[in-house]
Amino acid sequence: MGSKGAAVELETGGRTVRLSSPDKVYFPEGGSSGYTKLDVAQYFLSVGDGILRALRDRPTTLERYPEGATGESFFQKRAPKNLPDWTPTATIAFPSGRTADEMCPTEVGAVLWAAQYGTLTFHPWPVRRTDLDHPDELRIDLDPQPGTDYADAVHAARELRAVLDEFGGLRGWPKTSGGRGLHVFVPIEPRWTFTQVRRAAIACGRELERRMPESVTTAWWKEERGERIFFDYNQTARDRTIASAYSVRARPHAPVSAPLSWDELGDAEPRDFDIVTMPRRYAELGDVHAGMDETHHSLDALLELADQDEKDRGHADLPYPPEYPKMPGEPKRVQPSRARHEA
C-alpha cells in the first residue's frame, strides 16, 4: 500500500470517498500485523447495506478514534463543517435544552466518509429526521454485571422474547453489543414520546425482573445490582444511544455488533464476530435483520402494564441519568447507601 500518506479512493453508490493514510494501524493486535484504517473502511463497505439499514435517516453521533483503537477517542455529536453536502442533517435537542445538527446517513458513502475521520462506532438516535420527537424503536440493553457474562444475557433474552410476545405480540431483533452484552431492538410505531417509550421499557424490565429475580435487575444503582443482568431502561431516554448493528468496537480484536437470529442466539460467541469474519458471514447470509422495518408494533400493552405497576404495585418512576434535569415523578437521585447514612 505504500506510506501512510498514499491516499486511496473507494467507490460506492456513485460516490468516490478519499481515504488518507490507509496504512495507519488502527488495531495493533488484529491479525498477524494489525488491522489498518483501510481494513476498517473496506469492512464497512462489505456490510454497507446492513449498516445503512441501521443508520438510514437517523441523527447519528460518531465515536471517533483518529489515532486508532488504542488512542484517544471522542464522541462527535455536531456535524463537522466539512460534512459532504449530499449528507443531510437534523437538529436534535438535548435534555439540557441545547441543540445540535447531527448527520443523518442516507447512503453508504456517508459511512465511508465517517471512517475517513476515524469513526469506528456509530450511535444513531431511535428516531428519523422526519420526526425527531417520536422514536420508532424500543431499544433494550441487557448489560452483564460483574460475575455474569454473555451466557447470562442470552438466558435473560430468551425470557425477554416471551415477555415481548405476551405484551402486544412484539418482535424483538437481537444483536451482540460487541462486548459481553446483548441488545434487542423492537420496531415501534412513531406515536409515543421519549418519556412514554422509556415508561414502556421500565414496565418491560420490571416484568422480566419479576420472572427472573435472581438473574435480572432494573436497579439503577450499581451497589444494588449484584451478579445479575442489568436491564438498562435509561438507554431509552432522550439523547441516549446504543451502538448500531455492524459498528466496530474499540477492543483489541476489532469486534463488531453482530445482528443475530433468535435461533442462533445461544450458539453465538461475541468474539466470533469481527471485521474479518463478519464480511464472510454477510456474504453468505446477508443482513439477517433486513426485514426489521417491515412491521412496527404498538406499545399499548406495555403502557397498560406500566399503569398497572403504578396503581396495583406502587411502582413509581425510576432515576434518570445524572446529567438530566429533574423529571416529574422521579425519585431522588441519591445512592441508597448514602441516603441511609444521611438519614
Q: What labels would you give this structure?
A:
alpha+beta, 3-stranded antiparallel beta sheet, 5-stranded mixed beta sheet, 343 residues
Provide an overview of this structure:
The model has no long low-confidence stretch (mean pLDDT 95). Helix content is 27%, strand content 18%. It starts with 7 loop residues before the first strand and ends with a helix. Strand 1 and strand 2 form a beta hairpin. The chain is globular and about 65 Å long. The protein has 343 residues and is of the alpha+beta class.
Topology at a glance:
Layout: E1 8-12, E2 15-19, E3 25-27, E4 35-36, H1 37-46, H2 48-55, E5 60-64, E6 74-76, E7 89-93, E8 99-103, H3 108-116, E9 119-124, E10 137-144, H4 150-166, E11 173-176, E12 182-187, H5 194-211, E13 216-217, E14 229-231, H6 277-285, H7 300-313, H8 336-342
Parallel strand pairs: 13-14
Antiparallel strand pairs: 1-2, 3-4, 5-6, 5-9, 7-8, 10-12, 10-14, 11-12
Helix pairs in contact: 1-3, 4-5, 5-7
- Which structural class should the secondary elements be placed in? alpha+beta
Per the principal axes of the C-alpha atoms, what is the gross shape?
A: globular
Largest sheet: 5 strands, mixed
Using DSSP, what is the number of strands? 14
Give the spatial strand order of the biggest sheet: 11-12-10-14-13
| Span of the ends, CA to CA | 66 Å
Provide the low-confidence segments as ranges. Answer: none
Mean pLDDT: 95
Task: Give the DSSP E fraction (strand runs of 2 or more residues).
Answer: 15-25%
Estimated radius of gyration: 20 Å
Helicity range: 25-40%
Summarize the helix and strand pattern as letters. Answer: EEEEHHEEEEHEEHEEHEEHHH
Helix tally?
8
